[in-house]
């Protein structure tokens, strides 16, 4: 059984060897040698080889006859081939002999064709080289003539068109090597011309600005109803821009020709008498340089360089001189340079395409505007001359109008002018303060005498006096006020005119102008004039007559306030009843001054009374005398005489003022006499001293009954002495029973007597009585009087205690 399996395995391996690639039989043979029957396998392999050899032999025997037949036929073909070869060689020899003449002719034809081609090539090369030489010659001529922009165009055409066509020749290489050098030369020459141009416009900025401002001033002088071209200095601009568009839109033409690239076309002089920026400065270098750098592909470099240099020039132009504020000419030069700078930039903006754009110009203007405003604020703050401030304002307005004509926003300048308006107002107030003080110092504080109609009309033309009764009087006569009134009124109008001058040309409405004038006038009235009047009133050594005249003056000035209102209305054409219209505070100002003068009169009068009262020399321990033997004190006689003369001067004062002064004087006398009685230094008072004081009080009451000032009803003036009168009556009549019984009742005879006052006076009389009792212990009347005083004092204290409880 095992031998059968081995035989089958060997058969399988042999079939695998026969059918498998020889590269893959290694594993198969290894399996044979791994087994124990490899000898048997070798026998079977030899048997299989012998079988295959027998099969090969059988196949060869089967095909041998066909092979022999094929060899026989091949030997026959070889003989025929030898014959054919001999015939071909013979035919070739004959052909070579026959073609020698033709080959010679073909060689000659070939040589002719080569020569013909060389001639054509030479002609073609010469056709390409001649334009190069001609163009290079033209380039040299343009360079010698300094026509750099056409030279640059020729150079570009030579480099990109002609030289590539000409081919690689030595002269072409030399030309190609020179092209970058020529470009650098043209670029450097153009830049040099640009620097010269920048220096030129820096020098000419002042002149350009002056010309622009002059033309703007000329335009302002024209009729405002005529519609004018918004930009005064660019009357030629529209035509030049049209020319620029036409030139730049032309096919194959340069943006500007070499000769007039600065747009220096001169138009008919009758169109524009005042030269513009293009007439004062040759702009051709900047345009030429712009076109050259554009062709060179360096336009951005040129634009950046130009803008950088102009910014540097702007900073120099915007830097004011340190002493600019001293004269108007300094401001004028400053503004001329700025206007000239921006006129040039505006011209460049509108005559080039992109060298400067609107955003760049606006940015430059914003920078300039901030620096201009800062410089003007700083330098104008040093100015204390209103005329110079007014001239500066007019110059700023002209400066702003000029630049506004070029499209620059100038609202901030006008806002700054409104700020300067405050400063101008303060300077005016200082000047008018000096003026008013000078008028007051020079015033004699007395009515103005007029002897002729002409003098009268002269004063009434200066001040609106309306007094029919005064007009009826014959000459000579006196105006009620002093010289201060017409002079002050004229100065008020001058101040209003000065305010109006500043408000002109600020593009303000009539209402705004009216409001500004009224507010400034109110400041003049409430601050400056009021302070000056207070200065005059509070001045040392001012007399009552002067104070009276001040009251009369302020009364007339107060009455003239509505004429000032009408004056402002006439010059501003804004009625005072307009909504939100500012009212003049003149009435209140003059009322306050008058009240201050009245108070000063009262104070001065009381001070004078105090001077007389200081002369009072009462003997507080004098013995009692009969009333017939007593006379009025000398100091009081002098005081009454002074009061009568003083009140006679008050006839021109308003009745209420005179009455108040008189009442104040009487009250002050009464209070002062009361203080003399209650003076702590006076420790003892006799009844005799009270009788003397009673006589003096009667003299005062007599003065009051005589009505030194008209207007008092009945015995109103006597009420000033009622407190002292009731006190003296109580003590001289010794009517204590009535006082104590009726105290607190409205019908009390001694209603104005204060129990504290009465107690203090009794204490002083008690001291006197006690001293008399000590000296005269045996007089029963004195002892009884002392007891009576003690009893009254005790009752008064009880009364005070009850009232307090």
UniProtKB/TrEMBL annotation:
Disordered, as annotated region: 237-269
Looking up InterPro entries in the UniProt record yields: EXOC6/Sec15, EXOC6/Sec15_C, EXOC6/Sec15_C_dom1, EXOC6_Sec15_N, EXOC6PINT-1/Sec15/Tip20_C_dom2
Q: Which GO terms describe its biological process?
A: Golgi to plasma membrane transport; intracellular protein transport; vesicle tethering involved in exocytosis
Keywords assigned by UniProt?
A: Exocytosis, Transport
Domain annotation Exocyst complex subunit EXOC6/Sec15 C-terminal: ranges: 412-764
Q: Which domain of life is it from?
A: Eukaryota
GO CC, sorted alphabetically, is: exocyst; plasma membrane
- List each copy of the Exocyst complex component EXOC6/Sec15 N-terminal domain by range: 44-213
Keyword Transport listed: yes
Q: What does this protein do?
A: Component of the exocyst complex involved in the docking of exocytic vesicles with fusion sites on the plasma membrane.
User: Would you identify the family this protein belongs to, as annotated?
Assistant: Belongs to the SEC15 family.
Q: What is this protein called?
A: Exocyst complex component
Lineage summary: Eukaryota, Metazoa, Chordata, Craniata, Vertebrata
């Amino acid at each position: 059984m095992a031998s059968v399996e081995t035989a089958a395995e060997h058969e399988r391996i042999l079939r695998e060897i026969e059918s498998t690639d020889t590269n893959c039989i290694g594993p198969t043979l290894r399996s044979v040698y791994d087994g124990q029957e490899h000898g048997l396998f070798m026998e079977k392999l030899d048997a299989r080889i012998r079988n295959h050899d027998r099969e090969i032999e059988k196949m060869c025997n089967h095909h041998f006859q066909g092979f022999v037949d094929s060899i026989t036929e091949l030997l026959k073909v070889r003989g025929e081939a030898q014959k054919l070869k001999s015939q071909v060689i013979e035919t070739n020899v004959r052909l070579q002999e026959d073609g020698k003449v033709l080959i010679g002719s073909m060689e000659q034809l070939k040589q002719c064709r080569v020569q013909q081609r060389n001639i054509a090539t030479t002609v073609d090369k010469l056709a390409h080289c001649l334009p190069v030489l001609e163009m290079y010659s033209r380039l040299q001529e343009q360079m010698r003539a300094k026509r750099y922009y056409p030279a640059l165009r020729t150079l570009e055409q030579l480099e990109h068109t002609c030289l590539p066509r000409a081919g690689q020749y030595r002269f072409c290489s030399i030309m190609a090597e020179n092209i970058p050098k020529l470009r650098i030369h043209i670029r450097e020459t153009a830049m040099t011309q640009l620097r010269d141009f920048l220096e030129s416009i820096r020098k000419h900025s002042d002149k350009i600005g002056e010309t622009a401002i002059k033309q703007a001033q000329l335009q302002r002088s024209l009729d405002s109803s005529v519609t004018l071209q918004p930009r005064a200095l660019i009357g030629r601009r529209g035509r030049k821009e049209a020319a620029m568009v036409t030139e730049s839109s032309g096919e194959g033409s340069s943006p500007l020709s070499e000769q007039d690239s600065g747009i220096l076309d001169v138009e008919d002089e009758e169109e524009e008498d005042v030269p513009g920026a293009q007439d004062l400065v040759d702009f051709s270098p900047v345009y030429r340089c712009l076109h050259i750098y554009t062709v060179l592909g360096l336009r951005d470099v040129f634009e950046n360089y130009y803008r950088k240099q102009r910014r540097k020039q702007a900073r120099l132009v915007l830097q004011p001189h340190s002493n600019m504020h001293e004269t108007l000419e300094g401001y004028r030069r400053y503004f001329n340079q700025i206007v000239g700078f921006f006129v040039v930039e505006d011209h460049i903006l509108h005559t080039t395409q992109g060298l400067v754009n609107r955003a760049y110009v606006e940015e430059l203007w914003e920078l300039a505007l901030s620096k201009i405003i800062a410089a003007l604020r700083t330098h104008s703050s040093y100015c204390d001359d209103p005329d110079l401030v007014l001239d500066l304002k007019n110059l700023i307005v002209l400066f702003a109008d000029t630049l506004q004509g070029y499209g620059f926003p100038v609202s901030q300048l006008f806002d700054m002018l409104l700020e300067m308006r405050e400063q101008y107002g303060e300077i005016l107030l200082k000047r008018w303060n000096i003026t008013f003080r000078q008028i007051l110092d020079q015033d004699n504080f007395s009515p103005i005498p007029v002897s002729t109609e002409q003098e009268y009309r002269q004063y009434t033309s200066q001040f609106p006096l309306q007094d029919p009764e005064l007009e009826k009087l014959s000459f000579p006569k006196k105006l009620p006020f002093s010289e201060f009134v017409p002079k002050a009124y004229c100065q008020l109008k001058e101040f209003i005119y000065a305010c109006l001058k500043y408000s002109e040309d600020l593009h303000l409405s009539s209402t705004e102008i009216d409001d500004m004038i009224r507010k400034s006038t109110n400041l003049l009235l409430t601050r400056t004039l009021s302070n000056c009047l207070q200065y005059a009133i509070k001045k040392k050594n001012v007399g009552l007559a002067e104070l009276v005249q001040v009251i009369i003056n302020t009364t007339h000035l107060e009455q003239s306030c509505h004429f000032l209102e009408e004056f402002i209305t006439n010059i501003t054409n804004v009625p005072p009843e307009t909504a939100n219209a500012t009212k003049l505070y003149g009435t209140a100002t003059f009322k306050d001054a008058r009240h201050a003068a009245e108070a000063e009169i009262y104070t001065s009068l009381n001070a004078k009374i105090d001077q007389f009262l200081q002369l009072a020399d009462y003997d507080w321990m004098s013995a009692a005398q009969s009333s017939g033997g007593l006379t009025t004190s000398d100091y009081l006689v002098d005081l009454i005489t002074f009061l009568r003369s003083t009140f006679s001067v008050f006839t021109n004062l308003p009745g209420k003022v005179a009455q108040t002064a008189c009442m104040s004087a009487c009250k002050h006398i009464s209070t002062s006499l009361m203080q003399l009685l209650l003076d702590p230094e006076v420790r003892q008072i006799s009844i005799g001293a009270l009788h003397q004081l009673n006589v003096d009080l009667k003299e005062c009451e007599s003065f009051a009954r005589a009505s030194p000032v008209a207007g008092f009803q009945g015995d109103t003036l006597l009420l000033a002495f009622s407190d002292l009168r009731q006190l003296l009556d109580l003590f001289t009549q010794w009517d204590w029973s009535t006082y104590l019984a009726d105290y607190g009742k409205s019908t009390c005879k001694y209603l104005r007597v204060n129990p504290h006052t009465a107690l203090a006076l009794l204490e002083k009389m008690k001291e006197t009585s006690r001293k008399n009792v000590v000296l005269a212990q045996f007089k029963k009347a004195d002892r009884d009087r002392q007891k009576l005083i003690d009893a009254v004092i005790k009752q008064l204290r009880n009364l005070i205690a009850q009232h307090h409880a």
